[in-house]
Design brief:
It holds the Pfam family MreD. InterPro entries: Cell_shape_determining_MreD (IPR007227). Keywords: Cell membrane, Cell shape, Membrane, Transmembrane, Transmembrane helix. Helix content is about 70%, strand content about 5%. It contains six helices and two strands.
């Protein structure tokens, strides 16, 4: 069942991200806050941690390439970042307590690192000229808060979906 469920969930999240992106920027007290939904990479991180790294790398490469083609004009950026984030997640999850809370915190930390890497890359090639303080206040923190709420609501669903498919997966985590 999970053989068909994972690609369907990835596809749905791939198409839902831009729909939630339409709600951004938020105007609160005259300030604009940009919320970037990162549902797919968070799902891929959970797929890495609670199911199998090989599948997460494949879906990360595939959907990263789709993201590059459909949403930005720099081919290879997300198709590199998605699998790289999955590899880093698998490495660090072996070294921390393996539970849902630590997986959520790790996913948010990796999301923070990915957003900063994207900001630095876009600044390097001249696609953005926003100062770091503006990036932190108007994009990074709102993005992290919104994606933390998303993980708080659906993180346990992702974990239980992956663990219940194989009884031994409840006791084994990460790279196996």
């Amino acid at each position: 069942m999970i053989r068909f469920l994972v690609p369907i969930v990835c596809l749905v999240l791939f198409f839902v991200e831009p729909i939630f992106g339409l709600f951004s920027p938020l105007s609160i007290d005259g300030s604009l806050y940009y919320v970037v939904p990162r549902f797919l990479i968070l799902f891929l991180i959970f797929l890495t941690l609670f199911y199998e790294l090989r599948h997460a790398l494949f879906y990360g490469l595939f959907f990263g390439l789709l993201y590059d083609v459909f949403y930005i004009d720099i081919i290879g950026l997300y198709s590199f970042l998605y699998p790289a984030v999955c590899l880093i997640a698998a490495y660090f999850f072996k070294k921390i307590p393996q539970n849902l809370l630590s997986a959520t915190l790790l996913a948010l930390g990796l999301l923070l690192a990915m957003e900063v890497a994207l900001y630095l890359f876009f600044q390097l090639i001249g696609l953005t000229d926003a100062p770091a303080g503006t990036f932190l206040a108007s994009r990074l923190w709102p993005t992290l808060i919104a994606n933390a709420l998303y993980l708080g609501l659906l993180g346990w669903v992702f974990r239980s979906m992956m663990v219940t498919q194989d009884p031994q997966r409840g006791t084994k985590f990460g790279l196996y």
